[in-house]
Specification:
196 residues, alpha/beta, Uracil-DNA Glycosylase, subunit E, binds uracil
């Protein structure tokens, strides 16, 4: 099966999932947000969960934090269509609240499968939820510290026998209320660019 076929299978399974967030999706006529970009991408970005604009369109990072993500990518000459962008949680939490541990547990196996299918060389996590999940999941839990200490650092791990670099980044939304972190994100994107 091609990567595209396998990703389509994930979408079909998420469409059928049961739970509060899936109920909300059906009630509000939202879409699940599976991911977007190249199915052969070397870099995979992992955010937290869709916001309203994402749930209404079925596309990740299309709201205000998405605009800043686009600016960060452009700033280092990476095309959005050449990377793959996804989230841990595939359905929108109400009022953009933080995802609950049981919601992460429910949706994360789909992210694990996306990683297995696409075999990215670099996983860039956006925000602390995806940082914590990816670092714990792939044997980097001994490194765990606050995101303020880990952002922009490059960690090496192996996933199914393949070397993968994990780079924790601040969530682009932080820049919307903390302009100081914009420059830190710009600097971290240069580090990301140097890896590909
Ligand atoms: N924030 C996220 O974490 N993911 C999105 O897709 C949009 C906003």
């Amino acid at each position: 099966m091609s990567n595209t076929d396998e990703l389509k299978k994930i979408k079909d399974e998420v469409l059928d999932i049961q739970g509060d967030l899936a109920d909300l999706r059906r009630k509000e006529k939202y879409f699940p947000v599976i991911g977007e970009g190249s199915h052969e991408a070397k870099i995979m970005f992992v955010g937290e969960a869709p916001g309203e604009k994402e749930a209404l369109s079925g596309r990740p990072f299309v709201g205000r934090s998405g605009q800043f993500l686009n600016e960060l990518l452009e700033g280092v000459g990476i095309k959005r269509e050449d990377v793959y962008i996804t989230n841990i949680v595939k359905d929108r939490p109400p009022k953009n609240r933080d995802p609950k541990p049981e919601e992460i547990e429910l949706y994360a196996p789909f992210l694990d499968r996306q990683i297995e299918i696409m075999k990215p060389k670099v996983i860039a996590t956006l925000g602390r939820f995806s940082m914590q999940y990816i670092m714990n999941r792939y044997g980097l839990s001994f490194e765990t510290s606050p995101i303020s200490a880990l952002h922009g650092k490059v960690f090496e791990t192996e996933i199914s026998g393949e070397k993968v670099k994990v780079v924790p980044l601040y969530h682009p939304a932080v820049a919307l209320y903390n302009p100081g972190s914009k420059d830190e994100l710009r600097t971290d994107f240069k580090i990301l660019k140097s890896l590909i």
